Amino acid sequence: MPGYDPSAFPPFAVTVDLVVFTVRDKHLQVLLIRRGVAPDQGRWALPGGFVLVDEDLREAAVRELAEETGLTLRDVHLEQLATYGAPKRDPRMRVVSVAWLVLAPDLPSPTAGTDAADASWRPVDDVLEDARLAFDHATIIRDGLGRARSKLEYSSLAASFCPVEFTVAELREVYETVWGIRLDPRNFHRKVTGSPGFLAETGETTTRGGGRPAMLYRAQDAVLNPPILRT
Q1: Could you read off the pLDDT of 113-167 as tens digits, one per residue?
Q2: 3-state secondary structure of 217
Q3: Residues 126, 30, 153, 180: what is their CA dihedral angle, to the nearest 10 degrees?
Q4: DSSP states along 60-99
Q5: What CA–CA distances, in Å, run from 169 to 51, 79, 132, 193, 216?
């Protein structure tokens, strides 16, 4: 059997891109950086960068987020989204990107760093109406939004946008914000509190939403059955 010859294959790079969603000012917002270097200098893009030779993909995602925005992944949801490898997606060379989906409660304003000229939270709807994003990042954002919206139907993913302890009304607001629809408060309350293992009462209440004290809950890992459907 002939030996492996590395020179027989053209070199290519691996990068990570991060789709970071949060709920700010009652809008679903995505974290973007303005590119300070070519290619696509001056355009808005997802935070990310090249994977170093001695790190795995998750380590690269955590490092790039901290370097380009000053944010960390403490107390946030992180999952691998998809891989993007079209031959001409990056004009520099063949680049394969592994995208990550990050969901978190209201995060602070980011700080641009390294090769980012600026960093900002922007409403997702506004971003997707603007086709001038760098590379194929509009496609990656759409895929991330689709993943988040679909997983809300059956999982406790929406709690990633809430404090550790939250009210049912706060959780419902996340669903309405991410889906862009209004939900019936009574039906929603019955659904999420009646599904075994989905939410757990903390025994505490809060008045931070105004009005009468509301029960505080924590998310659990059970699947929401039957799911909440977007209708």
Answers
A1: 666 778 899 999 999 997 689 999 999 999 999 999 999 999 999 999 999 999 9
A2: strand
A3: -30
A4: HHHHHHHHHHS---TT-EEEEEEEE--TTSSSSS-EEEEE
A5: 41, 26, 36, 12, 10
Spatial separation of the C-alpha atoms in residues 108 and 102, rounded to whole Å:
15
What are the C-alpha distances in Å from 142 to residues 21, 51, 63, 124, 147?
Answer: 12, 23, 24, 9, 9
HSE-CB of 215 using CA atoms within 13 angstroms: 10
Neighbouring-strand partners of residue 14: 96
- DSSP code for 105: S
Given CATH 1.10.10.10, say whether it is the number of domain 153-219: yes
Which amino acid, residue 53?
A: V
**Quick one: tokens of 7?**
């020179």
Q: Can you tell me the distance from the alpha carbon of 160 to that of 178, in angstroms, rounded to the nearest whole number?
A: 12
pLDDT in tens, 44-90: 999 999 999 999 999 999 998 888 777 888 778 999 999 999 998 99
Lookup: tokens for 227: 């799911």
Assigned token pair, 61 = 């995602």
Q: What number of CA atoms fall less than 13 Å from residue 2's CA on the CB side?
A: 4
- Helices 185-194 and 168-179 meet at what angle, rounded to 10? 110
Fold of the domain spanning 6-151 = Nucleoside Triphosphate Pyrophosphohydrolase (3.90.79)
Whether the ω angle into residue 226 lies within 30 degrees of 0, i.e. cis, is yes
Token pair listed for 159 = 């709690």
Query: How do the domains of the chain map onto residue ranges?
Result: 6-151, 153-219
Q: Where are the alpha helices (DSSP H) in the chain?
A: 57-69, 124-128, 137-152, 168-179, 185-194
